[in-house]
Every structure is written in structure tokens, then in C-alpha cells.
Amino acid sequence: MAMMEGLDIAAMQIISNVGTARSCYIEAIQEAKKGNYDAAEKLIAEGDESFAEGHDAHLQLLQKEAEGNNVVMLLILHAEDQLMSAEGFKIIANELIDVYKRLDK
User: Fold this and answer.
1) Residue 40 and residue 27: Cα distance in Å, rounded?
2) Whole-angstrom distance, CA of residue 15 vs CA of residue 23
3) What's the average model confidence in pLDDT over 23-27?
4) What distances in angstroms separate CA 51 from CA 18, 77, 101, 104, one per listed residue?
5) Cα–Cα distance between 84 and 28 in angstroms, integer?
6) Is the Cβ–Cβ distance between 104 and 35 less than 8 Å?
7) What is the pLDDT of residues 50-82, one digit of tens each?
8) Is 3 within 8 Å of 68 (Cβ atoms)?
């Protein structure tokens, strides 16, 4: 049971951190749309910090899996889905910020 509780905590760390990152990336797009590029860049950086924390928690789970511990379960799969979603939003946010900057020139 202790292993399962540890996995639940790890999954929630991933979900929470990458959810924060995704929100920052979306807010960055909104700031860029208003022409607030400094705020947009700060939000991207803030999102990157949260994403890195979520990614680190994910990496620890992958290391446990490589050591022979079977850690895959529905909550972990959801956490990985959130991780990939946040990464996609970062890419989109950076692209849209570049477009807004170009339009403002």
C-alpha cells in the first residue's frame, strides 16, 4: 500500500505542476495578444519552472520502472497525458507570441 500511496503523490505532483505550466503558457498567449511581451516571456519562464518540476517527478517514475518496479496505472497515465499537453501548449504559446510580435512590427 505504501508504494501505491507514493505513486499517487508522484502522479499528483506531475498533474499539478504541468497543469500550472499549461496555465502559464495560455496566459502568456493572452498577454502577447495584448502586446505585453515582457509579461508573456515571464509567464513562459514561470511555466518552464513548473514544467521542469513535473518532468522531474515523471523521470523519477520512469527510473523506478526501469529498476523493475511496475508503476503504470491509470493515474500515472493521466499524469503523462497532462505532461505532454503542457509541452504542446508551450510550443503553441511560443509560436503565437512570435506571430503577435511580427504583427506589431
Assistant:
1) 7
2) 12
3) 96
4) 5, 17, 24, 29
5) 18
6) yes
7) 999 999 988 888 787 777 766 667 678 888 889
8) no
Q: In the Cβ-directed half-sphere of 36, how many Cα atoms lie within 13 Å?
A: 11
The residue type at 90: K
- Identify the DSSP state of 68: T
Residues with a known catalytic role? 78
47 within 8 A of 91, measured Cβ to Cβ: no
Q: For residue 64, what pLDDT is reported? A: 77
At 69, list the grid cell: 518496479
pLDDT at 70: 67
Output the nine-digit C-alpha cell for 104.
Answer: 506589431
35: left (phi over 0), alpha (psi -120 to 50) or beta: left
- Number of other CB atoms surrounding residue 41 within 10 Å: 15
Residue 90: partners with Cβ closer than 8 Å, 6 or more residues away: 21, 25, 44, 47, 48, 51
